[in-house]
Amino acid sequence: MSDTRPPDGDGTATSDDPTLATQRPVVPADGDVDSSRAQPEPDVAPSGGPALGTTERTSPDVVLAIDIGGTKFAAGLVTARGELIDRARVEVEQDVVPEAHYTSLADMVEGLIERARDQHGAKVRAVGVGAAGPVSRGFETVSPVNIPAWRNFPLRARLQDTTQLPVFGDLDAKALALAEGWLGAAQGHPNFCALTVSTGVGGGVVLDGELLDGATGNAGHIGHIIVEPGGRRCGCGAQGCLEAEASGLAIEAITGRPPTEPTYEIMQRTGRLVGLAAASVCNALDLSIVVVGGSVALGFAATFFHSAQVTLDEYAKLPYSRGARITPSRLADSGPLIGAGAVGWRGLRRSRRGVL
């Protein structure tokens, strides 16, 4: 497990922050923290998020946040308050060699570092990455299922070489769990699951305020729960995985239409399958809330979420899981980058304490 409280930095909380009463107190670091004005830190609070309070600084510190998706690379600058002050994106080209993908990413990263300095007067302290999985322990390599050219790609080392900064990474859905626990729909909840339903499907689980890692760092990969036994072949090799049935790529393969042009039936079906997986997770892990983000889920909106909730109600019947709810990400399309920023801030805080 990894401590989920948010990051060290210059963030402060307002006095009406409704979660402060339930979250752990911020631990001062290097003498620069005003603990009387703290918001949940990104090493993460019971709600799974990251943040620290400090006195105001004229030149803000930021983390360079990177989201590695199946169809696009995104990057942004995230303050210790969780503010996304700048962002950029490039499309992932298909059928290119590994180095072409990295060159595209590196050009965007270098441009944002320049903008941090020249336009925002900010100092970039670290790089935080959220990536589609699987990933290796310590985020040494990434193998996003939907980017075939990157198999065991040494992303962490390459980014360190490019930026000359410390690099911290995690699965994209685990990063979203940090963000939602820190600033989003799971604030104040020590036990919850975050799901991304986008090009692929991923998940992150927080139990007792701790983000689950697992033996290799891939815990919470809910996209590979079987929801249609004998169903479509997944990129992982199994049949009927949630990702093979409900992801954006799956929807396009099934319907011949992009997920931005869904039928009512497809929106309902996708919600039903996600609700089925959510019920299994709530029953197994004693959860009462599942936060769902990603372009497919948020794009399908009320139809998707109603169908998912009805299915969850149908299959979560145990005394402790009955009444569990599915709710949209409160951070919308900023969630992945805020999550990647949380990963970076959490990594900085843990490295200060000598925690691996």
Structure commentary:
With 356 residues, the protein is of the alpha/beta class. The protein has 2 domains: 1-183 and 341-356, Nucleotidyltransferase, domain 5 (2-Layer Sandwich), CATH 3.30.420; 185-329, ATPase, nucleotide binding domain (Nucleotidyltransferase, domain 5, 2-Layer Sandwich). The protein contains 8 helices and 11 strands. The protein has helices spanning 98-118, 155-163, 172-183, 242-246, 248-255, 264-285, 295-315, 335-352, and strands spanning 2-3, 61-68, 72-79, 84-91, 123-131, 167-171, 192-197, 201-207, 210-211, 289-293, 325-328. The strands form 2 sheets. The chain has a 6-stranded mixed β-sheet, with helices on both faces. A 5-stranded mixed β-sheet has the order 4-3-2-5-6. Strand 3 (72-79) and strand 4 form a beta hairpin. It is globular and about 55 Å long. The N and C termini lie close together (11 Å). The model is unreliable at 7-41 and 51-56 (pLDDT under 50).
Keywords:
single chain; 356 residues; alpha/beta; Nucleotidyltransferase, domain 5; 2 domains; six-stranded mixed sheet; five-stranded mixed sheet; 33% helix
Give a brief outline of the structure.
The chain has helices at 98-118, 155-163, 172-183, 242-246, 248-255, 264-285, 295-315, 335-352; strands at residues 2-3, 61-68, 72-79, 84-91, 123-131, 167-171, 192-197, 201-207, 210-211, 289-293, 325-328. With 356 residues, it is α/β, with parallel strands linked by helices.
